[in-house]
């Protein structure tokens, strides 16, 4: 089978199209013919071994998120059947319950081989059936980006009707957060660096938009738009540079879901407002299979359409990653197998 792997040294320049033997499912396992993949920011970090020993060992097949068709079953498989279209779960050991270190390891695309292969063998426990209305590319966006947003808005955030939610940016997680917050009946404010992206977010259902380039003090502006004490919930994807503005926007007792570190890893904010205003900082690391299945039911029930920016061919993984790194996309970047 064809695969793309990081061959013999950690570098994005070392992505190699090669072949591996076709895998076969053992007891309790399923064989998937992969149909599509989608990219996340972590896929830029893995080739640099950015997660240290947790990144895994070489050679490594990269990319975490994808969708495939079940083409063969190992002995004893009951959860799926041949012909089902399924997504591999990002965290193969986290089926339910709270996060633990054991459950947070074993992620696809590093340290485990990822989805840039013609075929994959996985435990039947590590796959989830996807809604029929989604294209392969749309379905491939679900394991990380969609589930992270679902965990932030629904599982951990418990956003309810009438809440004011601020979503930073228009990448995959952010747009899913916008869509899920609207399903919950929330009022959503979106920030972006470009007016045209703000308008596209408004067209997608956002209630308010702020250009954070023309309005550098967007935290104050968001608080004014929210009225009263401020925003109830913030999807924080920036990190170092954006957290101080998020703290200006959040209400007393509000929640900031810490998801991304696009502007840096270090905390560059005063702890005073967090303590004195009882702000909740909630780290979000994707989610478990139970959450995935709940999210899939909601997506199917409401016919949610994931936003796909652009689709690349399997052999064009490197150009796709370069496109991701330029941060000009709106929604998800996908790969067609």
Short description, anyone?
This protein is α/β, with parallel strands linked by helices. It has helices at 42-45, 101-104, 136-139, 142-155, 172-183, 195-204, 218-226, 243-249, 272-276, 289-302, 317-325; strands at 2-6, 15-19, 29-38, 65-73, 85-88, 119-123, 127-129, 164-168, 187-192, 208-211, 231-236, 250-258, 280-283, 308-313, 332-336. It has two domains: 2-144 and 287-336, Medium-chain alcohol dehydrogenases, catalytic domain (Quinone Oxidoreductase, Chain A, domain 1, Alpha-Beta Complex); 157-283, 3-Layer(aba) Sandwich (Rossmann fold), CATH 3.40.50.
The top-level CATH class of the largest domain is Alpha Beta
List the total number of helices: 11
Instruction: Please outline the major beta sheet.
Output: 7 strands, mixed
General form: globular
Task: Tell me about this structure.
The protein is of the alpha/beta class and 337 residues long. Helix content is 27%, strand content 26%. The chain contains 11 helices and 15 strands. It has helices at 42-45, 101-104, 136-139, 142-155, 172-183, 195-204, 218-226, 243-249, 272-276, 289-302, 317-325, and strands at 2-6, 15-19, 29-38, 65-73, 85-88, 119-123, 127-129, 164-168, 187-192, 208-211, 231-236, 250-258, 280-283, 308-313, 332-336. The strands form 3 sheets. Strands 3, 4, 5, 6, 7, 14 and 15 form a 7-stranded mixed beta sheet that branches. α5 links the parallel β8 (164-168) and β9.
């Amino acid at each position: 089978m064809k695969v793309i792997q990081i061959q013999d040294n950690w570098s994005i320049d070392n992505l190699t199209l090669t072949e591996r033997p076709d895998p076969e499912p053992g007891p309790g396992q399923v064989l998937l013919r992969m149909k599509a993949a989608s990219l996340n920011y972590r896929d830029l970090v893995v080739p640099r071994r950015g997660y240290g020993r947790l990144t895994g060992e070489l050679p490594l097949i990269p990319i975490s998120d994808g969708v495939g068709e079940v083409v063969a079953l190992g002995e004893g498989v009951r959860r799926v059947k041949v012909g089902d279209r399924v997504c591999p779960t990002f965290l193969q050991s986290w089926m339910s319950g709270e996060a633990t270190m054991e459950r947070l390891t074993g992620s696809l695309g590093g340290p485990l081989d990822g989805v840039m292969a013609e075929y994959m063998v996985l435990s039947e426990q590590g796959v989830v059936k996807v809604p029929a209305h989604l294209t392969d590319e749309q379905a491939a966006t679900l394991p990380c980006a969609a589930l992270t947003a679902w965990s932030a808005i629904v599982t951990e955030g418990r956003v309810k009707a009438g809440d004011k939610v601020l979503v930073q940016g228009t990448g995959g997680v952010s747009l899913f957060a916008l869509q899920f917050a609207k399903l919950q009946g929330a009022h959503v404010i979106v920030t972006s660096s470009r007016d045209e992206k703000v308008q596209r977010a408004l067209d997608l259902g956002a209630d308010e938009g702020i250009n954070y380039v023309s309005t550098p003090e967007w935290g104050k502006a968001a608080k004014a738009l929210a009225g009263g004490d401020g925003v109830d919930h913030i999807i924080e994807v920036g990190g170092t540079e954006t957290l101080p503005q998020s703290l200006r926007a959040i209400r007393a007792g509000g929640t900031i879901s810490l998801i991304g570190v696009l502007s840096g890893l270090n905390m560059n904010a005063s702890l005073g407002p967090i303590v004195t205003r009882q702000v909740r900082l909630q780290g979000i690391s994707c989610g478990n299979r139970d959450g995935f299945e709940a999210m899939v039911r909601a997506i199917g029930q409401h016919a949610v359409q994931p936003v796909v920016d652009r689709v690349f061919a399997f052999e064009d993984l490197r150009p796709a990653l370069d496109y991701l790194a330029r941060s000009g996309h709106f929604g998800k970047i996908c790969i067609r197998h």
